[in-house]
Design brief:
7 helices; 5 strands; globular
Length: 140
């Protein structure tokens, strides 16, 4: 089985890794973990501010901020792990990667917003659960 771990730079990302590691221990065949972080694309005006060099360094730095703290945890799982950094809208990118990687499960964190915050801001985890073609494990 392939598991897509959608992570960001929040403390909840480590909880996602720990939960998936626990789940993997109970599986007859160890799963492959595909760790994905999606950096939201800047507006055209903001990208222009980066000048000729472009915003590439910004996107790379933001993706590393999410992945770097998780690498020791991921190594300790003993599982086969691949990483991917993407730029774009988070929900469509996570769903597209789940399909492309033929994931059997998506694991994602929830920041635990209250009902009003979720109503106003939306919830990435909630949207992934609603639209995912495969089961979704949501960790708090």
């Amino acid at each position: 089985m392939k598991i897509l771990l959608a992570v960001d730079d929040s403390p909840v990302a480590a909880a996602v890794v720990r939960q998936v590691a626990k789940l993997a221990k109970g599986m007859a065949t160890p799963p492959q973990l595909h760790v994905l972080t999606v950096v939201p694309r800047l507006s055209k005006a903001a990208e222009k501010e980066f000048g000729a060099a472009g915003p590439g360094a910004y996107y790379e730095r933001e993706a590393e901020r999410a992945l770097a703290p998780l690498r020791p945890l991921l190594r300790r799982t003993g599982l086969k792990v691949t990483e991917q950094k993407a730029v774009g809208e988070v929900v469509p990118t996570v769903l597209e990667e789940a399909r492309a990687k033929k994931a059997g499960l998506v694991a994602i964190g929830s920041h635990g917003r209250n009902a009003l915050q979720t109503l106003l801001l939306g919830s990435v985890a909630q949207k992934v659960v609603a639209l995912s073609p495969v089961p979704v494990l949501v960790c708090h």
